[in-house]
């Protein structure tokens, strides 16, 4: 299956456990049918059209081996009884019936379901049946057999239910147990996805995983890095980042939940996953992590701007974690951690009282439904940014994304080794950490593109390096300096950075755009063939994610994004809408118009650039400030209708942490 969508429209959703019983909702003595129906009705009333739901593995496949002579295993029993089970695809009939009622309620209220099949892990606790007790749940062949049978049986039972739109492998199943090599992770993914497709080849199979790395070869974090994006793209239809602003995530813990950084975090992680896997990705779990990270009003503001950003960048859905608070549930996993029980967008009281997050989701859904068009055309991109598949590269990807958005243009990300290099007038090559971040073939293709007329922005930090650097960039490497703070001036602005190593380079055949306070080259430009090479002498993309807190955070006083703006101008990028405020980010959707600048012979950009022609182009804008903004904009055309904002006398007005969309009509 090559396509992935929920009826083609951007989906607003939530992760659902029953408000009354949580993970025990499927038990006969805990099931409250009326309560579950009221849950679904309340969620639908607050804009939820997609629910990710969790058939707890231990509740649906409650099996155990009977022991016989000398402790040998005998027949299979239903756990807690003497009932022998001979059907290999047996699942608990009562639990199945109760899940069927959930499907009924979803269909009645117009809610679609994404079913996380092997829910053997939830919030720090494993929920596995006793028949796989003491087995490695990922690598042991008997565990794989029972998990495959579970997936087949469940999908066979519910494949005709109209409410179900996707099968999810499970909930963060890479947390269920450890693997020692990538082949073990691949085998598990193949067994479960194949079991699903045997019974239902019509629906997409999505990952359900989080914390995935580019290729599975990197510093290990409890074995999770063996679950690579590449193998998931090989076997699955969609990938599923869980981009929380956790304290341990340096890329998303530099500011409040309603900041510029966190507005773009889910989008960039999805674009990164897609670039490496070749498959669509969407934020399957998003949340503020409750009061320990953000007050409710801030969580709602952050949710609002994230939904606008995800919609504008063409992602298929956005799912909040989670539906209901779980403060009242005094059993695992809710007793495992004292901090993850206030994450709902509705309170678990009898009235199912909405929090500000629920009101924000409903408002966005109402906005989306009020538009006279069902879909945004594809987003215009102005540059191709290469993503290394040889090392963990999300921080560089996120940095490039934030820099481009602050500079006022859009990038397309592509895996550097596994995918063809798209045609473009503008390429970006972020610095890696070592010599082998990119392969020589990739480098040679870029050199060929530059000689043919493209502009390349390449950053070099740490110990990274490239062949024929003197010929290519016009810079002669002299020596390295240890980590230090460096400042330089660009376009009248004082900028600064720090890096693990700072290369001292002597200009031989290039224009020095900026020198640092020690006289060393910070930014340079060289004409090569019909194109240009803009070299940045530090790991620009990585440093704004990990070190520089004033570039895309707080005061925005360290305007390193101006390097990207300079490179875009040199590449001839001309947008329909430009502005000075880097915290208002735009996308352009050029339905029926040219999408790249035209060129004259010789590679220079045509002064005419891109102009809007009828029909109208659509432009989205997201205000990542926590206050209303009146943003002067220059428009190459005229502004037509506008939704969720206002425009007058060249000024676009948007509410705090909010977004709008407007037409740009022909000139």
Defining key terms:
28 strands, alpha/beta, 26% helix, TIM Barrel, 667 residues, seven-stranded mixed beta sheet, 3 domains, Immunoglobulin-like, six-stranded parallel beta sheet, single chain
In short:
With 667 residues, the chain is of the alpha/beta class.
- Reported CATH architecture of the largest domain: Alpha-Beta Barrel
Q: Unreliable segments (pLDDT under 50, ≥5 consecutive)?
A: 218-224, 593-614
> Which shape, going by the Cα principal axes?
globular
Secondary-structure-based class equals alpha/beta
Whole-number radius of gyration?
Answer: 26 Å
Mean pLDDT across every amino acid position: 91
N/C terminus separation? 41 Å
* DSSP strand tally: 28
Look up the CATH topology of the largest domain.
Answer: TIM Barrel
Work out the strand percent: 15-25%
Tally of contiguous helical segments: 14
User: What is the CATH class name of the largest domain?
Assistant: Alpha Beta
How many structural domains can be distinguished in the coordinates? 3
Helix content: 25-40%
Describe this entry's structure for a reader:
With 667 residues, the chain is α/β, with parallel strands linked by helices. It has three domains: 12-61 and 87-370, TIM Barrel, CATH 3.20.20; 383-570, Class I glutamine amidotransferase (GATase) domain (Rossmann fold), CATH 3.40.50; 577-665, Golgi alpha-mannosidase II (Immunoglobulin-like). Helix content is 26%, strand content 24%. The protein contains 14 helices and 28 strands. The strands form seven sheets. It has a seven-stranded mixed sheet with strand order 13-12-14-15-20-19-18. A hairpin with a 2-residue loop joins strand 16 and strand 17 (493-507). It starts with 10 loop residues before the first strand and ends with a strand.
